[in-house]
Amino acid sequence: MASNVSAPTRGKKRRAGVAPDINVTPLVDVVLVLLIIFMVVTPQMEAGVSVTLPSIRNPDQGNGALEPTTVTLTKNGKFFFEKEERTLDALLVDLEALHAAKPDTRVVLKADKDLEYGKVRAMFKSCQDLGFPGVSLQVIDVANRKS
Length: 147
Fold this sequence. Notes:
It is built from five helices and seven strands, in the order αααββββαβαββ. The protein has helices at residues 2-5, 7-10, 25-41, 88-101, 117-130; strands at 55-56, 69-73, 79-81, 84-86, 106-111, 134-137, 140-141.
């Protein structure tokens, strides 16, 4: 009789002391490397040169379908076409060539808030005179800004 009781457990082998375990160290290593990569790359993704932008309460959302060209004016009077410094004459030549190649391109003016309004308006007018269909000013949305 004793042999009949132990018969069902005879075919199965049990491992004593072995529990399933997941090693998360490689996962943590990969996540930390990705975090570092994003921390290094994200600040460089900003279009144009970094300037202190003026703030506004209800900015226009604009058209996200078109890739704009950024023209930056710093408070010390320097001009940048995307991230490359230019003189005013060279900037206007580059903008004219851009308009000839891509007439539908939007231009975004990114000017420091401490820059004189007249200089910003003059650049805005120059872009309009070259024939760009959309010239806009980049600002900070005060309502969505984290203080």
